[in-house]
Design a protein that fits this description.
The chain has 188 residues and is of the alpha+beta class. It folds into two domains: 71 residues, 3-Layer(aba) Sandwich (Rossmann fold); 100 residues, Arc Repressor Mutant, subunit A, CATH 1.10.10. It is 36% helix and 19% strand. The strands form three sheets. The protein has a four-stranded antiparallel sheet, with helices on one face. The chain is elongated, with a radius of gyration of 19 Å.
Length: 188
């Protein structure tokens, strides 16, 4: 577990009091924890609805423990939740995915969950231009776009916390019409 949050949620669609897809939709509105739907439903339409609602994988009952464990490992590997590497350093900026902390020089950054996730996504691809669509898919789990403004707002907040402005970037460099790149001040 990371920060007392589950690494993966196993969700059965056949819950007694509420539809599992409703639970999945509610979960996705507040969390990006990986979700594997585990259910007896095996209709293609059910699988498509669950995946479109935000499930990361779908396992049909009955299944073996080894099968489920392999699916959990695959989801963790894809989501980046399971990490063996240490912190990422870009110039004086340090991002530690294990402790979910970030610092700039000797100053600890106070970041919201999404701000940290955004910074981590950029740090993992330091030096590369990352599109808003890629950030929406990775950080907000919205693979089909539609929320560019959300990315812009969070980037603005992140810039302030890094002590920079769009006019005077140090770490976050916009590529007009393409995306944003995280790079150390001397690596522009």
């Amino acid at each position: 577990m990371i920060d007392d949050r589950p690494d993966v949620v196993l969700l059965d669609l056949g819950l007694p009091d509420v539809d599992g897809l409703q639970v999945l939709t509610m979960m996705r509105s507040v969390s990006d924890v990986p979700v594997i739907v585990v259910t007896a439903r095996d209709d293609d339409a059910d699988i498509v609805r669950a995946l479109d609602a935000g499930a990361d994988d779908f396992v049909t009952k009955p299944f073996g423990a080894d099968h489920l464990e392999a699916r959990i490992r695959a989801v963790l590997r894809r989501s980046g939740t399971q990490r063996t590497d240490g912190s990422i350093t870009v110039g004086e900026l340090m991002v530690d995915p294990k402790t979910r902390t970030a610092s700039l020089g000797d100053r600890q950054l106070e970041l919201s969950r999404k701000e940290f996730d955004l910074l981590l996504a950029l740090a993992q691809r330091a030096g590369e231009v990352v599109t808003k669509r890629e950030l929406l898919a990775e950080v907000w789990r919205q693979p089909y776009g539609g929320g560019d403004r959300t990315v812009d707002v969070h980037l603005s907040w992140l810039r302030r916390k890094l002590g920079e402005t769009a006019a005077d970037p140090r770490y976050l460099h916009s590529s007009r019409g393409v995306g944003v790149r995280l790079a150390a001040p001397g690596d522009v």
